[in-house]
Amino acid sequence: MNRKLLTIFFCAFLVAAGCSFLAYRMVGKSVAVAHKSATTRLVGAATDLKLGTILTAANLATVDIAGPLPKGAILKPEDVIGRGVESDLYQGEPILESRLAARGSGGGLAATIRQGMRACAVKVDEVVGVAGFVTPGMRVDVVISGDPPGPPDPRVGTKVKTLLQNIEVLSAGTDIQKDAEGKPQQVRVVNLLVSPEQAEVLSLASNHTQIQLVLRNPLDTKVAEVPGSAMSNLFAPAERTGGFKPRKPALRTISIEMFNGTQRTEQKFALPEGRE
């Protein structure tokens, strides 16, 4: 093969290689542009963020999302700076409106209070404080015990009533986060999430009765019909059930026979209390 033909083949090879490289660059760039146009840049968490954290610029990062945007997605960092986190966020997770407190509500416990609800502090004893259920997020019933207003009735004694049911524990003491191992902490005050009406009832009960918190399954949301009980019911016969019905003492009677001619009648009279 002569030199002239080799030169032609070599030049053709260089031209083909150059065209292939240009085609690859053009196709790769168009694919990258198409991929870039199919994603949206959202505001996300730069690190793991705990409930109650006030967001700053250092807490934020950008997250690219392909396809439809999740509901409540945030595009601008200035829309989240200064707002409190209402539930834990994890690194790289997009920040949604539903996970943040309203503007101006701050952070900490206040940021966890939902719209229309209140945080009501309840004083508990040491037994309740370490019983294992006064941790944030648990559900409890509020049971009160005491003497009802009016003249005391020694036949009934102290009465007990379930005041509120299925109430969420917001915080144990000053802690609004669960312990890393889920262990209870010894506290004297528990904050419960209640409605304004429930807050009034709970405040009145805490001043005049003794309060006990009763643990319930968070999946059990049924409100039970509980009549209440009294001290006298604890010593009533086994067939008796709960309720505020005091045991009535048996009436003592006396029988008198009366004769009217040949007719005989018997009549019973109740004895006054304390007479035999």
Strand content: 25-35%
Outline: rod-shaped
Q: Count of DSSP E strands?
A: 10
Taken together, the total number of domains comes to 3
Describe this structure in a few short sentences.
It is built from four helices and ten strands.
Provide a descriptive summary of the structure in words.
The protein contains four helices and ten strands. It is an alpha+beta fold and 276 residues long. The strands form three sheets. Strands 3, 4, 5, 6, 7 and 8 form a six-stranded antiparallel sheet that branches. The longest helix is centred in the first third of the chain and has 35 residues, at 3-37. The chain starts with a helix and ends in a 6-residue tail after the last strand. The mean pLDDT is 77.
